[in-house]
Amino acid sequence: MAYITRRLAKFVGSEASGIVLVPNVTTAINAVVRSIPFKKEEKIFCLNITYGAVKKLLKYTAESLHLEYQEENLNLPLTSKQEILDLVSSKLSLNTRLAVFDHIPSNAAFIMPVKEIIDICHDRGVPVLIDGAHALGALPLSMKDLNPDYYTANAHKWLCNPKGCAFLYVREELRSRTRPLVVSHGFGSGFNSEFIWSGLRDYSPFLALHTVLDFWNAVGVNRIRKGMHGLLSQAVDLLVKAWDTGLLAPISMCGSMALVELPNELSRNHTVEYSLAESVQNELYYRYNIEVPIKALQDRLYVRISAHIYNELPEYQRLASAILEIAKSKGGQQARDAMVRKLDDAAR
């Protein structure tokens, strides 16, 4: 365990004493939030694109401890990272006890300018927690360069490790007060021991990191990331041209995922909400055998596409064709519905 922790620490630009292995990002964020000695009326800050489960934790914490929960709305689509920085800079107050940001928001899929965000937070004396659930593997990481107070990421997503493995980084002066959710034999033996020895568990997902990191080094870390982004760029270009739409954020802000807007025919005469997105997603799965998330964000429908080294461009061509077929059928149905309404009105 100590050896694999050292290997992962090197991979993410941290000293080995600064990271601990945990089952998932949710566990890590809970541990951090539960360890902070909040005072009444202090603020917890996040954005509307923060992961849903994390927002629920922050709201629960605020309600339980009589804190102020501050969630700011980022307008979408984006044209540049400056819109994010301007929002954070204008809304983050000095009375904030913790600010939480995603490195790559799950629902929005663009890369947040976390280095600049961390600097803004630190300039105001605000501790910051970065949720990097989608970052490990997708992006080069260096805790030394980013300098967060807390950072956590999953290994089962882009790194392709078995599920049940993530890491939590904590700044040195905060480690002694950051405690795991379960107190067990490691308690009192230091930051790393407290998290490793926190009750009976299956350590195999942690130990698998050894082989996974060997794979990344054998293929080439930069080669893998370049391949993912290159394929994503090709796929985005294909879909945008096929559907005559655009992106939620510029391709320069994307790593291995992007949100591409769907054709208007899919949402015309409908309220754009979760149920509509779910219906399109289900039709893609059951009719075309395509598994891909559909997102309803600020009155627009998007598809979140991902690109890894096991994907190929023809897969995205299948998606493009399937969406066009669905849009055509819905457009035809809408035209028929309009005709029926017109005939009904004439009959009256």
TrEMBL record:
This protein's record includes keyword Hydrolase: no
GO terms (BP aspect): selenoneine biosynthetic process
InterPro entries per UniProt: Aminotrans_V_dom, PyrdxlP-dep_Trfase, PyrdxlP-dep_Trfase_major, PyrdxlP-dep_Trfase_small
GO terms, molecular function: hercynylcysteine sulfoxide lyase activity (ergothioneine-forming)
Keyword vocabulary terms for this entry: Pyridoxal phosphate
Annotated ranges, domain Aminotransferase class V: 6-245
PANTHER family listed in its UniProt record: HERCYNYLCYSTEINE SULFOXIDE LYASE (PTHR43092:SF2), L-CYSTEINE DESULFHYDRASE (PTHR43092)
Organism field: Strongylocentrotus purpuratus
Protein name per the record: Aminotransferase class V domain-containing protein
Keyword Ligase: no
